[in-house]
Structures are given as structure tokens and as C-alpha cells.
Specification:
It is a single chain. By secondary structure, the protein is an alpha/beta fold. The chain contains nine helices and five strands. The chain has a single domain (about 1-205), classed as P-loop containing nucleotide triphosphate hydrolases (Rossmann fold, 3-Layer(aba) Sandwich), CATH 3.40.50.300. A five-stranded parallel sheet has the order 2-3-1-4-5, with helices on both faces. The protein is globular. Bound molecules: cytidine-5'-diphosphate.
Length: about 210
């Protein structure tokens, strides 16, 4: 069972993916961390984030064991990730790791921007999680405040809009909903309601597969 969860920044897809994986006993991969880690490694080398050659080399050398680095969650890391994520060779270098992770029994939940469209186009269930930029900015702002990070709502909203634009307009695997994805708008849903809806969608799909 492969479940693809895509959506823009701070849509709640990460929390949702983690809970779905725990609920169904599946592996979980936050694919955003891969791009965040590549950006970190490029910066450590002192190279520019849009240096395609160095970024692709960093992606090829990436050690997935180093993804639990708390620095990857820091403000600025998402923005940096979206710059390396535009580079086709970086995306290509990360593809096989994501695909083999997805194939690990008994199955996996992957969250990102292009899971349903490019990484796992044959996923059993695809969910595209979204919410208005204002709602997403509010959520991310509260999260950052909770961690004691300096941030303003306006600054977070501007970051989200910039990232949406960059992620949706790139040539390779742009952020978009797969045609066969279930659209989950969480603008007016809390995490419990979003989780219940997603579980319903997954059970329905699994039932259809069982009957097929
Ligand atoms: O948590 P948040 O939604 O803010 O970001 P993330 O999922 O960690 O992703 C950070 C950045 O990585 C995104 O803005 C994308 O540019 C890039 N990304 C991507 O291109 N493809 C993915 N499958 C996942 C992330």
C-alpha cells in the first residue's frame, strides 16, 4: 500500500502523513527533508544554492540517516530547499531513494509536492492537502512561536506565497494535484477532522481495490 500526500507549505500534510502512517502501520517519509538536507549540505560546502553541479553532487551523496537533524526544521531551511528543488538533476538524484522507500513492505506514506505526480504515479491512494495561504501562514506562525522562534505573521505569509510560486512554476515536477487525487481543503478543518476524512478516503480506496 503506497499513500501519496502532496500539498503546499504548512498545509498540514506532514502531520497528517505521520498520523496516517502510524494508524495503518506503514513507513513514513517526509520528502521535504531530503531537499532541506541537500540545501544544508550545499551551504556547508560554501556553494550557491542554485549551483546545479554542486547541488546535484550533494543530492547524490546524501545520507538518509542524517535526516533527523533539527536544523532542517529551522526558518530559512524551507526557502533554501525550494531553491535546490528547482534543479532537475537534484530531483533525479533523489528519485530512486524515494521510490525504493515506497516499495518497502508493508508500504509507505510519502508526503511532498510531487509524490502523486512524479515519484509514485501509481500510488494506491493520493491526497492533495491544501488551505488558503492565510490559514497556512497562521498555522506556521503559531508553530514557530511555540518553538520560541522570532517571526511575524506577515513575514511567514510572504514566505509561503514566495514558496508556493516557486514550487508551482518550476519546470521539473512542479507542485500540483494529480488528476486522480482527493482534494482535502483543511482551511476550515482541524487536524482531527482532516485525519478522519483522510482515513475515510483510504478505507474507501482499499475497499475498491479489494473488490477489483
Ligand atoms: O514543511 P513545508 O511544507 O514548509 O516544506 P517541506 O515539505 O519540508 O518542503 C520544503 C521545500 O522542498 C518545498 O518548498 C519544495 O520546494 C521542496 N520539495 C519538493 O520540491 N518536492 C517534494 N516532494 C518535497 C519538497
Amino acid at each position: 500500500m503506497i499513500i501519496a500526500i502532496d500539498g503546499p507549505a504548512a498545509s498540514g500534510k506532514g502531520t497528517l502523513a505521520k498520523r496516517i502512517a502510524a494508524h495503518f502501520g506503514l513507513h513514513h517519509l517526509d520528502t521535504g527533508l531530503l531537499y532541506r538536507a541537500v540545501a544544508r549540505d550545499v551551504q556547508r560546502l560554501g556553494a550557491a544554492l542554485d549551483d546545479a553541479e554542486r547541488a546535484a553532487a550533494a543530492a547524490r551523496a546524501l545520507d538518509p540517516a542524517e535526516l533527523d537533524d533539527p536544523d532542517l526544521r529551522k526558518p530559512g531551511a524551507g526557502e533554501a530547499a525550494s531553491i535546490v528543488a528547482r534543479i532537475p538533476q537534484v530531483r533525479a538524484a533523489l528519485l530512486e531513494f524515494q521510490r525504493s522507500f515506497a516499495r518497502r513492505p508493508p508500504g509507505a506514506v510519502l508526503d511532498g509536492r510531487d509524490i502523486g505526480t512524479a515519484v509514485c504515479p501509481d500510488a494506491d491512494v493520493k491526497i492533495y492537502v491544501t488551505a488558503t495561504p492565510e490559514v497556512r501562514a497562521e498555522r506556521r506562525f503559531l508553530e514557530m512561536q511555540g518553538r520560541g522562534e522570532a517571526a511575524t505573521y506577515e513575514g511567514v505569509l510572504a514566505d509561503i506565497r514566495r514558496r508556493d510560486q516557486r514550487d508551482a512554476s518550476r519546470d521539473t515536477a512542479p507542485m500540483r494535484s494529480a488528476d486522480d487525487a482527493f482534494l482535502l481543503d483543511t482551511s476550515n478543518l482541524d487536524i482531527e477532522a482532516a485525519f478522519d476524512t483522510a482515513v475515510g478516503v483510504i478505507l474507501r480506496k482499499a475497499g475498491q481495490r479489494g473488490r477489483a
